[in-house]
Amino acid sequence: MARLRYLGRKIAWLAITLYGVVTFNFVLFHVLPGNPVQLLVRSGHLTQQAQAAITRVYGLDHSLIVQYLIYLRDLLRGQLGLSYTFREPVSTLLGQYLGNTVLLLAAATLLTIAMGVLVGVIAANRRGGRYDSTTVTASVIGWSLPTFWTGLILVFVFGVWLHAFPIFGSQTPNAVYSSFWVRYEDIAAHLFLPTLTLVVVNIAQFVLVARVSVIEVLAEDFMLTARAKGLARRRILWSHAVRNALLPIVTSSALLIGLVVSGAIEVETVFSWPGMGRLVYNSVLNRDYPVIEGAFLVFAIVVLLVNFASDLLYQALDPRVREA
Amino acid sequence: MVRPVVASAHVPGPDEGPVPNVAAEPVKRGQLRAVWQYVWHDRLGRIGVIAFVLVVIFALAGPLIFPFNSAAVANTSAGVLLGPSRRNWLGTDELGRDVFREFLSAAHISLEVGLAATAISMILGAVIGIVAGYYGRWVDNMLMRLTDFFLVLPQIPLVIALAAFFGQSLGIIILVIGMTGWPTTARIVRSQTLSLRERQFITRVRSLGTSDARILRVHILPNVMPLIFANTVLVIGGAILAEATLSFLGLGDPVQVSWGTMLHSAFAAGAIGRGAWWYFIPPGLGIVVVVLAFTLTGHAIDQALNPRLRGSR
């Protein structure tokens, strides 16, 4: 029962937040003075007819409430407006680029979590030693690196200097692949540096969280019991300590997705990775507001859904957590 | 993230006369000195403080000794993207300007934006946290929902949407970063206020009929100040990173060049492909050093205020 109530509360909160994001978006792009459509109408380069036409197309002749309802209706139908530069529906555009971004996000997130936990647990096990202090110092430095600059440095070192990895796009342009396998290899090579950038920058918090929570668990009484039972040290560490240290790691995973989504915009720009992040960058340069608006909405929704999933996972892992 | 009680407020005993000023100076000053002592004797904390002082000196004195004129494009006889030389210590940029001078003046802008944005975040976070924690009930509920809302939104896309919309000036960038950086502060301040509210000295002044406004100002605020201060130092690093990112993405102020704007120009001019390391390495290193300085100092202050963290370093 409590479990159901928890689920209900979480779903309600998710719905409220989603609604909040959508409304926030409307206010930002449609209500505030100087919004893009008004700027377009007032730019002074339009004839009276053109102004009237644009006003009608964007529904500016309606009251704000009606505009809001139209906006909501369009959203439900998946309509996000037309891109100024591409002359295409924003939803089509985002759909084209979403796949590449998801690939990058998934690779970066999974690698960050796996490697971060591994490094953090080993550091906790060797607490106070040289490995430990080096890890902590490296993590703090990693935390201070700007994502885009780390990408630039990797481009310079591995691309320009060593010619070890491709630094542009997601595939070799105009390549003819002899088999599927060769094609995947090519994509993986292109994926390497962008993913590495995101891992280097975001791994720090994972390492630190995993390390601290394992250290805390190792100090618990049941760890002493496990040792007294004569269990192997490795087994105590990896199956007993890590399992009990999992909760803070799940929480950080949810936070991580927000960071990785932000980082993806920078990394895709640096590596010209054809995803939503680079689309945002180009749209910012071209002041293509409908695309910026749509992309923000998609990013926000992705982050909200991941947070929701992690809340559920959190509760599944620890039944004590009913209140969040 | 519930933090243990931090401030050691003077709790008046039952026999004391009129309610004394709880935020009595000696207590606070002693605590500040203790914090400083701890930070200075912590190895990483000391490195952070020294790095910070050095950067501030460079950013303030640098442009005075080596003034940079961003418009001095036409009258340079130097070539573009030239490597370091005796004339141009860090080479020249894509317009033939001196990178070293540009770097120093950009340091000033980056720090200025970081500090100003953080000030906004701190005021917002402190006010929201204190009000939520003190009034509790539905006020608390609503404010914390709002905080959670801003906490889950991905900051960079949000800031991009806001900045793309409101335009490219330093003021807008400061405002936008400041308005999105407050949620963690609000949460921390709230939990501290919650525990203060239940303390005896607050119940006593309240029963004497002191107004809420006065309780908040005179009794609560001074006691959450150290916590806000520790948080400030940590938030500045994030604000400087956010500014650099925005500027790198082309949303920076085109006239007031920051480290992020320099990196945007370097990237757009193809400095990386041409191997012009003197152009894109210094601004990035500058950002790393500043953020690192604030992070190390902030963690040391955090540990000083919160002994429980010390063991887990």
Helix-strand string of chain A = HHHHHHHHHHHHH
Overall pLDDT score of chain A: 84
The biggest sheet of chain A, with number of strands, parallel, antiparallel or mixed sense and barrel status, is: none
Low-confidence stretches of chain B: 1-27
Helix content of chain B: 55-70%
Shape assignment of chain A: globular
Question: Structural class of the helix and strand makeup of chain B?
Answer: mainly alpha
Radius of gyration of chain B: 23 Å
Structural class of chain A: mainly alpha
Helical element count of chain A? 13
Distance between the termini of chain B: 17 Å
Number of beta-strand segments of chain B? 0
One letter per element, helices H and strands E, the order of chain B comes to: HHHHHHHHHHH
Roughly what is the average pLDDT of chain B, rounded to an integer? 80
Could you tell me the radius of gyration of chain A in angstroms?
24 Å
Pair with the biggest interface: A-B, 53 and 45 residues
**Total helical segments of chain B:** 11
- Tell me the quaternary state: heterodimer
Write structural notes for this entry:
- The complex is a heterodimer of chains A (324) and B (313).
- Chain A starts with a helix and ends in a 7-residue tail after the last helix.
- Chain A is built from 13 helices and no strands.
- In chain A, 77% of the residues lie in helices and 0% in strands.
- With 324 residues, chain A is mostly helical.
- The mean pLDDT of chain A is 84.
- In chain A, helix 1 packs antiparallel against helix 13 (289-317).
- Chain A is globular and about 85 Å long.
- Chain B has 313 residues and is an all-alpha fold.
- Helices cover 70% and strands 0% of the residues of chain B.
- Chain B has eleven helices and no strands.
- Chain B has helices at residues 25-41, 43-65, 99-135, 137-152, 155-166, 170-180, 183-197, 200-207, 212-251, 259-268, 277-305.
- Mean pLDDT of chain B is 80; it is low at 1-27.
- At the A-B interface, helix 1, helix 6, helix 7, helix 8 and helix 11 of A face helix 4, helix 5, helix 9, helix 10 and helix 11 of B.
